[in-house]
C-alpha cells in the first residue's frame, strides 16, 4: 500500500483488520519498523481523536512524528494554477506539499470540505494536489468526502464484537449493520457516512455483514459510496433486528450542504433500541448528547463508542505498518 | 501514587522530595521506565514552564509525549449532564476524557478557574470529571484551586537550599518560610498560594519548616489550605527573620475574584529584604517586575526564581516516576 | 561553535558545508550524539520549513525536541529594563529566556522585525537579550536581520550543484551567483537577503563564487552585509552569464520598510533565463508565483527551490551537530 485515502487503496480489508487486531494484542511487536522514519501530520482543520491516535500509532512503530497545524501555525495556501499570487495566499500547494515531502517519509493530511460547492468538494482537488506534489505516501486524516481511518476502526470494532455465534456464521448468518442518520444543529460533511458506507458495502460484498442505510428522504449519499446497500427511509423499520446501529448526522448531498426538513424521530434512544437485536451502538465522535444520540445509550451497556475510538489507534497503526513495509 | 492533584495524594512528601533530588543528580537513571508509555498533556489554558518541564521530565524517563491545546486545537467541552447539546459545546467531557484515556497511559490536565462563581471553581467540577471519565492516572498541571507540581518544586527548592546549619537542625531549628501577598493589576486565581500553603502546612507538621502567611485583610485563603499557618496582616512584621519569602499575588477568596483595596507597601524590595534573615526570594513565575517584586531582587543574589523554575523539571519527573512505578 | 546567528559565528564555512553534505549522504551516522539532549524551538512568528527541517534534523541526531509557539501558546514578553510591568506584558524576557534554558540544552529562536523602527530592528535587541539570558547555545531560526540556516542551505545547494567543470575550477573559474530583487505586494524584511549576501560575500572571499546583487535603486541593503559584492541596478545586465539567480523580494532599508517605486520588469521568467548561463534559479520559499517568480521557471528544469528547501534539513543538522560536539 502506497496511499490510504479510501477503501479502494486496500487490497484485502479482511487482512488489514486482522493486522490491526494483531497489533492491538501486541502493540510493540514492530517497534523498530519505523526507526529513522518521520510521519508528518498536516491539519487544515481541528482534530482530537485523529491527531492523538495517529501520533500514538506512529510512536508504537518507532516513528518520529511532527504535527503541523496549517490553519494556525502556517498560512493560506493557493491551489489554483495560472494565478498571479498577489492576494491573500502566501504559498502554492505545489511548493508547500513538495517541501513537506522533503522532511517526512509519510504524510497525513486533514482537509475538510467547505460545503459550498459540491463539485469542488467532491473533486478532492486540494487533497489530490497535495498527494500529487508531496512525493511521499499519504494517509487521509479525513478529506472532503472520506474518513477511511475512521471506517477501518469501525470495521475493526464490528469484527471484534461480532455477535453471531461461530456455528451460525458457518451457515451464512451475518451481523446486520445499520447506518442511521441522526439530527444535528449544524450542517456536517458527508465524509464519515460516505466512507462508512463505502467500507460496509465492501464488507457486504465479502459476506462479512449485511448493510442498511436509514435516512430521511433527501439525505441520500452519492451513489458511488452506497452500491449494494439497502436504503430505508424509516428508522424503526431499518433498525429492526439490527446488530449494530451506527449513528451519524450528515447534511444533504442533493441539496448540497443543506439541513432539509424531515419527519419522525431520528434520535436513537433506549425505546428504539428495543426494536433491535440488542444492537451495539456506534458513533465516530464527537457526539452531541440527546441531540444525535440519547445519553441513556451512551452511558449504557450497548454503547461501543469508546472502544471504537480506541480502535482508531490500531486502525492507524495497521495502515502505517502497511505503508512502512512497502518502502 | 495513582493521582497527583494535591498534597493529599502523596504518602510521604519527604521521600518525594528526596526522589526528585536524586533525579536531579542523575536525570537519566530511569530512562527506560517509561518505555512504550505515553503522556498526554491537555491544556485548557496557556502554559510555558509547566508544558516544557513536564514534557522534558517525561522524555527523561523514556516516555512519549503528546500535547493537546484544547483551547486552540480542539473544541468547547460540555460538562453538565442532562443537557441537550444543541448549543456551542461540541463534545461532552465524558467522551472527550474517555477517548484521551484510550491513547495515553497518564494524562496531565490544566484547567484554570473562571473566577466568577466560587462554588463552581472550588468544586473542581471540570477537573474531577476529567479524572472520573478518562480512566488513567491524572497529574494536575494546575487546576482551579491548586498547582501541586509547582508546590513540590517549591519544597524541593527550599530543601536543597536550607540555610539552617546541620547542628542547629538537630536542635530543632527550622527555616522560616513566609508566603507574601503582592500587588497585581489583574485578578489572579488562588491556585498557587492555596497549593503552596497546603504543602507548607504539611511540611510544618513534619517539622521541616515554620510557615507564615502575610496578606492584607480580606485576602484570607480558604481555611482548608492554611491549617496551622500563622496569618499576619503586616508584611514587615511577617518577614522579620524570614529565611524564605515566597512572593505571590492572588485575588480575594472572600470577595471572590476581587482585587480589594489595601494599605501599605506590599512589594518586596531590597529595603524590606533587610528585615529578613538574608532571605531567599521565590516566585512561581511569570512575575511582573517592579509591580509584584522589585527588579533589584530578581537580578540580585537572593533570588531563587530561576532555580525554582528549573526544579519544576524534577518535581514533574519524580511524580511521573511514582505513577509509572505504580503501574 | 556555541552560537549560530550569522556567518561570523562559523569558523570554517567550507567545512560546515562539507559536514552538511556528509550528513545528507549518511543522515543517521550520528544518531546517538544528541541522546538525552533537548532542543527547544521558540517561535514568535509562523514557520513551516524551519520548524519541520530543524525538528527533523534534531531527531536525526537522537535529540528530543520541544516546540513553543510564543505568539499562540504563550504570552507577550517585556524586553525593556526599568519598566513597571503594569501593562499588557506578562513576563520579562530575562525570566522567560532563563526558564527555557533550564529545560533545554540548545534553543532555537525565531523573531521577525516589526519593520517600523530600523534602529530597533537592526539592534536585534530581542534576539540578543534572549541569547544573553537563556544561558544555553542558541540557533537563529530567523531574526530581525538574518536567516543563517537558510543561507547555509543556500550555500550547500550551490556547492552540490556547482556547474563549473573540475578542470576549470582549478583554473580559477567560479560560478556567478546573482541575488535578484523581485516584486511583492507586501513589505518584507531584509533578513533573508542580508544573510544570503553576508554568506555569499564570505564565499566570494574564499574564492568559492562570484557574487552580484541586482536591485532597483533605493533597495540597497545595509553596507555591513554586502562588502565585496558588485551592485547592479539593471536585472538583465546582472544576470547575464549567471550560473545561479537567487530571487527574493525585500523592502527598502534606506526608506525603512517601504515598497519604493521602481522601473523595469524585475520578475524572472524564461525569457530572462535566456540571458543567463542556463542558470539554476533559487528562492527561499514561500514564493508568490507569477508575482516574484514565473511559474514556468518554478515548474521547469532550472528550478532548485525544492532541493534547496530539502537542504534546510542538512543545514540545521550540521549546525546542531557542531553545537552538540562543542558541549
Automatic annotation (TrEMBL), chains A, B, C:
The keyword Transferase applies. Its EC number is 2.1.3.11. It is an enzyme of class 2 (transferase). Residues 209-322 form the Aspartate/ornithine carbamoyltransferase Asp/Orn-binding domain. Carbamoyl phosphate binds at residues 47-50, 75, 110, 147-150, 284-285, 312. It catalyses: N(2)-succinyl-L-ornithine + carbamoyl phosphate = N(2)-succinyl-L-citrulline + phosphate + H(+). N(2)-succinyl-L-ornithine binds at residues 142, 184, 248, 288. Keywords: Amino-acid biosynthesis, Arginine biosynthesis, Transferase. InterPro entries: ArgF'-like (IPR043696), Asp/Orn_carbamoyltranf_P-bd (IPR006132), Asp/Orn_carbamoylTrfase (IPR006130), Asp/Orn_carbamoylTrfase_sf (IPR036901), Asp_carbamoyltransf_Asp/Orn-bd (IPR006131). Gene3D superfamilies: Aspartate/ornithine carbamoyltransferase. The keyword Amino-acid biosynthesis applies. Pathway: Amino-acid biosynthesis; L-arginine biosynthesis. It comes from the Bacteria. Residues 5-160 form the Aspartate/ornithine carbamoyltransferase carbamoyl-P binding domain. Homotrimer. Belongs to the aspartate/ornithine carbamoyltransferase superfamily. SOTCase family. Catalyzes the transfer of the carbamoyl group from carbamoyl phosphate to the delta-amino group of N(2)-succinyl-L-ornithine to produce N(2)-succinyl-L-citrulline. Is essential for arginine biosynthesis. This is N-succinylornithine carbamoyltransferase.
Amino acid at each position: 500500500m502506497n496511499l490510504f485515502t479510501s477503501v479502494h487503496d486496500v487490497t484485502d480489508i479482511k487482512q488489514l483488520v486482522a493486522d490491526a487486531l494483531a497489533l492491538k494484542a501486541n502493540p510493540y511487536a514492530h517497534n523498530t519498523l519505523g526507526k529513522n522514519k518521520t510521519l508528518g501530520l498536516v491539519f487544515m482543520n481541528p482534530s482530537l481523536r485523529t491527531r492523538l491516535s495517529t501520533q500514538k500509532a506512529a510512536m508504537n512503530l518507532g516513528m518520529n512524528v511532527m504535527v503541523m497545524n496549517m490553519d494556525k501555525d502556517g498560512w493560506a495556501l493557493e491551489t489554483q494554477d495560472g494565478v498571479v499570487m498577489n492576494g491573500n495566499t502566501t504559498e502554492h500547494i505545489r511548493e508547500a506539499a513538495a517541501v513537506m515531502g522533503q522532511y517526512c517519509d509519510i504524510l497525513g493530511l486533514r482537509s475538510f470540505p467547505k460545503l459550498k460547492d459540491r463539485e469542488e468538494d467532491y473533486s478532492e482537488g486540494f487533497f489530490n494536489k497535495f498527494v500529487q506534489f508531496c512525493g511521499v505516501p499519504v494517509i487521509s486524516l479525513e478529506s472532503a468526502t472520506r474518513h477511511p481511518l475512521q471506517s477501518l476502526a469501525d470495521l475493526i470494532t464490528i469484527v471484534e464484537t461480532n455477535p453471531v455465534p461461530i456455528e451460525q456464521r458457518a451457515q451464512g448468518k451475518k451481523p446486520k449493520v445499520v447506518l442511521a442518520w441522526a439530527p444535528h444543529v449544524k450542517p456536517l460533511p458527508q465524509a464519515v457516512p460516505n466512507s462508512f458506507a463505502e467500507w460496509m458495502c465492501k464488507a457486504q460484498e465479502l459476506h462479512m455483514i449485511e448493510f442498511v442505510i436509514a435516512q430521511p428522504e433527501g439525505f441520500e449519499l452519492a451513489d458511488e459510496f452506497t452500491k449494494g446497500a439497502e436504503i430505508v427511509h424509516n428508522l424503526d423499520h431499518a433498525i429492526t433486528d439490527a446488530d449494530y446501529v451506527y449513528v451519524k448526522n450528515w447534511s444533504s448531498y442533493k441539496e448540497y450542504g443543506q439541513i432539509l426538513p424531515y419527519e419522525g424521530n431520528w434520535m436513537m434512544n433506549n425505546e428504539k433500541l428495543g426494536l433491535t437485536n440488542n444492537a451495539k451502538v456506534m458513533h465516530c465522535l464527537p457526539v452531541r448528547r440527546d441531540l444525535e444520540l440519547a445519553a441513556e445509550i451512551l452511558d449504557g451497556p450497548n454503547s461501543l463508542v469508546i472502544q471504537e475510538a480506541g480502535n482508531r489507534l490500531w486502525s492507524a497503526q495497521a495502515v502505517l505498518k502497511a505503508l512502512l513495509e512497502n518502502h
